[in-house]
C-alpha cells in the first residue's frame, strides 16, 4: 500500500518511532510529474553501503522528507506502507 506523503502522515510515522526513510527515485511519464520518489520508513539507520538493492539512498525522516511533504515541482512523493502496521491510523 502506498500513500502520498503529507505532513500528517510524516507526524504519524515519527510518533510510531520511525526515524529514517529509504528512498528510491524513478522517472515516470505523467501529466503532473516527471519523477516519483518512493520512501520506505525504517526505525534504524541503514548502512549506505548495504542499502536494499531497490533503494538509492536514505534520509532522516524529519529533514528531507518534511520538505518533500510540502511539495516538489513535477514530482510525486509516495510512502510505501506495505511493510509497516499503521494502516488504521493513516486511512
Tell me the distance between the termini.
11 Å
Beta-strand residue percentage? 25-35%
What is the 3D shape?
globular
Radius of gyration: 13 Å
Q: Could you give the order of strands across the largest sheet?
A: 1-5-3-2-4
Q: Describe the sheet with the most strands.
A: 5 strands, mixed
**Number of helices, counting only DSSP H or I runs of 4 residues or more:** 3
Q: Uncertain spans, ≥5 residues at pLDDT below 50?
A: 86-91
Helical amount among residues, as a percent range?
A: 10-25%
Order of helices and strands: EHEEEHEH
* Average pLDDT level: 89
Give the number of DSSP strands: 5
Structural class: alpha+beta
List keywords for this structure.
single chain; 32% strand; 5 strands; 3 helices; five-stranded mixed sheet; alpha+beta; 91 residues; disordered C terminus
Structural notes for this entry:
21% of the residues lie in helices and 32% in strands. The protein has 91 residues and is an alpha+beta fold. The model is unreliable at 86-91 (pLDDT under 50). The chain has helices at residues 7-15, 64-69, 87-90, and strands at 2-4, 20-27, 35-42, 57-60, 75-80. It has a five-stranded mixed β-sheet with strand order 1-5-3-2-4.
What are the SSEs and their pairings?
Layout: E1 2-4, H1 7-15, E2 20-27, E3 35-42, E4 57-60, H2 64-69, E5 75-80, H3 87-90
Parallel strand pairs: 3-5
Antiparallel strand pairs: 1-5, 2-3, 2-4
